Q: What sequence folds into this?
């Protein structure tokens, strides 16, 4: 079941929409008072339908507070026809704006579309692995610990970190490094890679788990 929080001071309108959405296994809990709505445990709901004309607190203020505190889709449902209200609501972070009056069918369609987008976004976020590397200024952190690198080592590793999982050719690495010896570029790169591996705790090239050599091409960080 989809649980929706609604903050709407028109009880007849709220009841009409609630009854319509119920046929799709969507439960709507409405609060006419925005203060009660905000204290109702917003994060336990899947989506918020928010009116703008509310007693005691403007709907845009409610929207701003919800966006700041919670990761929840917000659809503005309002009879206010001023384009500035719509622009401000979307700028604050509302996901959709449906002006009244509207057919409940359209609200249902927008709810389902918005929930699908959120689900895809959250799934993609969960599937993105967190890197053990982080670049802050002129320092690279590995598992939250700063690495002591020479300028050339920093340039090579930062390139691999920025393109983690993607093979970088020897030419790409050498051309982006201003601190590598031009006379013996190939050997210099191999030496630098070896030193970086050592600083990552990989003593032998056969033990390389982070920086892998791609035969005939270059290196990649995995």
A:
């Amino acid at each position: 079941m989809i649980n929706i929080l609604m903050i709407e001071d028109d009880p007849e309108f709220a009841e009409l929409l609630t009854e319509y959405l119920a046929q799709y296994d969507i439960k709507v809990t409405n609060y006419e008072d925005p203060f009660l709505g905000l204290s109702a445990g917003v994060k336990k709901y899947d989506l918020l339908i928010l009116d703008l004309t509310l007693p005691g607190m403007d709907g845009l203020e409610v929207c701003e507070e919800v966006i700041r505190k919670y990761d929840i889709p917000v659809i503005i449902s309002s009879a206010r026809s001023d384009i500035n209200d719509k622009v401000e609501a979307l700028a604050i972070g509302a996901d959709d704006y449906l002006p009244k009056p509207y057919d409940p069918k359209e609200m249902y369609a927008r709810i389902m579309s918005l929930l699908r987008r959120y689900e895809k976004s959250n799934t993609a976020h969960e599937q993105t692995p967190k890197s053990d590397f982080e670049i802050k200024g002129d320092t690279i952190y590995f598992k939250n610990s700063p690495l002591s690198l020479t300028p050339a080592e920093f340039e090579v590793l930062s390139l691999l970190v920025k393109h983690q999982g993607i093979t970088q050719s020897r030419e790409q690495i050498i051309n982006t490094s201003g601190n590598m010896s031009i006379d013996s570029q190939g050997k210099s790169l191999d030496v630098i890679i070896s030193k970086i591996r050592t600083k990552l705790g990989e003593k032998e090239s056969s033990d390389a788990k982070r920086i892998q050599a791609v035969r005939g091409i270059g290196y990649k960080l995995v």
